Amino acid sequence: MAETLDAVDFAVAAFRDDGSWVVQELAHDLEADVDSLAGALRRFAGDEGAMAMVGLDDDFFVIVRVSGSLTRVLLSDVGAVDDWELAESAVEFLGLPYPEDDDDEVAGDLDLLGDLGLPALELGLMLDDVDAYPEELLSDIARRVGFGELFDDAVGLTSA
What we know:
Number of domains: 1
Protein backbone atom coordinates (compact mmCIF):
# COMPACT_ATOMS: atom_id res chain seq x y z
CA MET A 1 0.00 0.00 0.00
CA ALA A 2 1.32 3.44 -0.95
CA GLU A 3 -0.60 5.30 1.68
CA THR A 4 0.88 7.61 4.29
CA LEU A 5 -0.83 9.79 6.86
CA ASP A 6 0.54 12.82 4.97
CA ALA A 7 -1.74 11.86 2.07
CA VAL A 8 -4.86 12.53 4.16
CA ASP A 9 -6.07 15.86 2.81
CA PHE A 10 -8.79 16.22 5.42
CA ALA A 11 -10.92 14.24 7.83
CA VAL A 12 -13.90 15.88 9.45
CA ALA A 13 -16.89 14.77 11.48
CA ALA A 14 -20.24 16.47 10.97
CA PHE A 15 -23.30 16.16 13.16
CA ARG A 16 -26.28 18.15 14.32
CA ASP A 17 -26.52 19.22 17.92
CA ASP A 18 -29.86 20.74 18.95
CA GLY A 19 -30.66 21.36 15.29
CA SER A 20 -27.41 23.17 14.41
CA TRP A 21 -24.60 21.61 12.38
CA VAL A 22 -21.21 21.11 14.02
CA VAL A 23 -18.10 20.22 12.01
CA GLN A 24 -14.92 19.09 13.75
CA GLU A 25 -11.59 17.91 12.43
CA LEU A 26 -10.81 14.26 13.17
CA ALA A 27 -7.39 13.04 14.26
CA HIS A 28 -5.49 11.62 11.27
CA ASP A 29 -4.74 8.35 13.06
CA LEU A 30 -8.45 7.47 12.86
CA GLU A 31 -8.58 7.18 9.07
CA ALA A 32 -6.96 3.76 8.92
CA ASP A 33 -10.23 1.90 8.44
CA VAL A 34 -14.01 2.10 8.53
CA ASP A 35 -14.24 0.59 12.02
CA SER A 36 -11.89 3.24 13.48
CA LEU A 37 -13.91 6.01 11.88
CA ALA A 38 -17.21 4.52 13.04
CA GLY A 39 -15.86 4.19 16.58
CA ALA A 40 -14.74 7.82 16.58
CA LEU A 41 -18.14 8.97 15.28
CA ARG A 42 -20.03 7.18 18.04
CA ARG A 43 -18.67 9.63 20.60
CA PHE A 44 -20.61 12.46 18.92
CA ALA A 45 -24.19 12.54 20.16
CA GLY A 46 -25.75 14.07 17.08
CA ASP A 47 -29.48 14.34 16.46
CA GLU A 48 -29.23 11.94 13.47
CA GLY A 49 -25.91 10.33 14.32
CA ALA A 50 -22.68 11.61 12.83
CA MET A 51 -20.75 11.34 9.60
CA ALA A 52 -17.10 11.44 8.66
CA MET A 53 -15.86 12.86 5.38
CA VAL A 54 -12.30 11.87 4.54
CA GLY A 55 -10.40 12.96 1.43
CA LEU A 56 -7.11 11.33 0.47
CA ASP A 57 -4.36 12.54 -1.85
CA ASP A 58 -6.75 14.49 -4.13
CA ASP A 59 -7.72 11.02 -5.31
CA PHE A 60 -10.87 9.76 -3.61
CA PHE A 61 -13.08 10.15 -0.56
CA VAL A 62 -15.02 8.08 1.91
CA ILE A 63 -18.16 9.06 3.79
CA VAL A 64 -18.97 7.01 6.88
CA ARG A 65 -22.26 7.66 8.66
CA VAL A 66 -23.11 6.20 12.04
CA SER A 67 -26.53 6.30 13.64
CA GLY A 68 -26.96 4.07 16.67
CA SER A 69 -25.63 0.64 15.76
CA LEU A 70 -26.00 1.27 11.99
CA THR A 71 -22.90 2.17 9.99
CA ARG A 72 -23.25 3.22 6.34
CA VAL A 73 -20.39 3.78 3.91
CA LEU A 74 -19.83 5.45 0.54
CA LEU A 75 -16.53 5.09 -1.33
CA SER A 76 -15.99 7.40 -4.30
CA ASP A 77 -13.53 5.13 -6.15
CA VAL A 78 -13.21 1.37 -5.62
CA GLY A 79 -10.03 1.45 -7.74
CA ALA A 80 -8.30 3.13 -4.80
CA VAL A 81 -8.34 -0.24 -3.02
CA ASP A 82 -4.94 -1.10 -4.55
CA ASP A 83 -3.19 1.81 -2.84
CA TRP A 84 -5.19 2.80 0.22
CA GLU A 85 -6.00 0.91 3.39
CA LEU A 86 -9.13 3.00 3.98
CA ALA A 87 -10.48 2.12 0.52
CA GLU A 88 -9.71 -1.56 1.10
CA SER A 89 -11.48 -1.38 4.46
CA ALA A 90 -14.54 0.22 2.82
CA VAL A 91 -14.71 -2.48 0.14
CA GLU A 92 -14.43 -5.18 2.83
CA PHE A 93 -17.07 -3.47 4.99
CA LEU A 94 -19.43 -3.31 2.01
CA GLY A 95 -18.82 -7.00 1.27
CA LEU A 96 -17.70 -6.28 -2.28
CA PRO A 97 -15.29 -8.41 -4.27
CA TYR A 98 -11.79 -7.05 -4.73
CA PRO A 99 -11.84 -5.10 -8.02
CA GLU A 100 -10.11 -6.86 -10.90
CA ASP A 101 -8.83 -3.76 -12.71
CA ASP A 102 -8.53 -0.01 -12.27
CA ASP A 103 -12.24 0.39 -11.57
CA ASP A 104 -13.20 3.98 -10.72
CA GLU A 105 -16.79 3.24 -9.79
CA VAL A 106 -18.58 4.58 -6.73
CA ALA A 107 -19.50 1.91 -4.19
CA GLY A 108 -21.70 1.82 -1.15
CA ASP A 109 -24.86 3.44 0.10
CA LEU A 110 -25.85 6.29 -2.21
CA ASP A 111 -28.87 6.96 0.02
CA LEU A 112 -26.87 7.48 3.22
CA LEU A 113 -27.80 11.20 3.15
CA GLY A 114 -31.33 10.80 1.80
CA ASP A 115 -32.97 11.67 5.10
CA LEU A 116 -30.87 14.86 5.21
CA GLY A 117 -32.21 16.13 1.88
CA LEU A 118 -29.82 14.53 -0.63
CA PRO A 119 -31.54 11.56 -2.32
CA ALA A 120 -29.51 8.73 -3.87
CA LEU A 121 -30.26 9.76 -7.46
CA GLU A 122 -29.03 13.32 -6.93
CA LEU A 123 -25.94 12.16 -5.05
CA GLY A 124 -25.18 9.72 -7.86
CA LEU A 125 -25.44 12.51 -10.41
CA MET A 126 -23.08 14.69 -8.37
CA LEU A 127 -20.54 11.85 -8.20
CA ASP A 128 -20.58 11.46 -11.98
CA ASP A 129 -18.26 14.49 -12.25
CA VAL A 130 -14.99 12.57 -12.68
CA ASP A 131 -12.94 15.78 -13.00
CA ALA A 132 -13.91 17.17 -9.59
CA TYR A 133 -11.53 16.89 -6.65
CA PRO A 134 -12.77 15.14 -3.50
CA GLU A 135 -12.94 18.39 -1.52
CA GLU A 136 -15.04 20.02 -4.27
CA LEU A 137 -17.52 17.16 -4.35
CA LEU A 138 -17.73 16.94 -0.58
CA SER A 139 -18.16 20.71 -0.33
CA ASP A 140 -21.11 20.46 -2.74
CA ILE A 141 -22.53 17.53 -0.77
CA ALA A 142 -22.09 19.37 2.54
CA ARG A 143 -23.77 22.46 1.07
CA ARG A 144 -26.77 20.40 -0.06
CA VAL A 145 -27.10 18.80 3.36
CA GLY A 146 -26.76 22.12 5.20
CA PHE A 147 -23.21 22.53 6.51
CA GLY A 148 -21.28 23.68 3.43
CA GLU A 149 -19.71 26.78 4.95
CA LEU A 150 -18.65 24.88 8.07
CA PHE A 151 -17.11 22.15 5.91
CA ASP A 152 -15.30 24.69 3.73
CA ASP A 153 -13.89 26.42 6.81
CA ALA A 154 -12.76 23.11 8.34
CA VAL A 155 -10.91 21.95 5.20
CA GLY A 156 -9.57 25.36 4.16
CA LEU A 157 -11.74 26.05 1.12
CA THR A 158 -13.11 29.50 0.44
CA SER A 159 -16.87 29.78 0.25
CA ALA A 160 -18.34 30.52 -3.15
